[in-house]
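Continuing the batch. This is chain 6 of the set; chains 1 through 5 are on the previous pages. Same settings as before, nothing changed between runs. Recording input and output for traceability.
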Amino acid sequence: KTFIFDFNKFDPKDINNILRRRIVQDVKELKKDRLVRINPKTTQFISYSPSLEKRILSKVYKGVKVKDISEGLRISIASATKQYIDKDKYFQYLKEYVSRNVDQDFIENRGLESDGALAAIAGYYLYMHSCNKKSEFMKEDINIDLLIEELTIYSKDDVIRMKYIEENKEEFFRIAKERDLLFSKISKVATKINGIKNSLNNLEGIDPKITIKEYNKLLISKKEELEKEKEELKILLKK
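Output for chain 6:
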């Protein structure tokens, strides 16, 4: 379940206690058992590539185990479970807001286009709003209610996906490994494209009348070819 912290209303020292209470409350609702207790020595949380979850839960419950159900897959949980929940359009409002308020090169250079990255950006905006702060990435007012709604939908679907993985491991990993291979190919092509972009940037100050002009054309042609290949691989990944 998703709940939102207003950091202005809580003492930072109380956050771990609040998280413990909310986690227990949600587990009681899910299991329909009012006597549920969470013992860090016997309780195990599950997550998909849980780097952030491990950092947070280790502070909330000392010594608790967090199981990574991705088993080393590099693709997102959304791509890996596309056959179960086929949604491509998370964070539509947030994407539009970011496109108007954040430089596109900044987004691309830092890999902030994925849904996971957008969820982190949503958290940043919520925190800034709760502190009544503005930044260079907030040139206009943001609709917090709509942002929370989009984040809640994304978080809920993530939990449903993890439940599906736990209940359908064999089928999931058979399909996910094929998608992971496509993702790897896309990453390699993207790396080549970035290399060509860097080469083009390095050629900007060179006199176009010399033979490098032809080299410049070749690089542009190769970049377009690779971008086409990347888009074709992305289409395959969506199927």
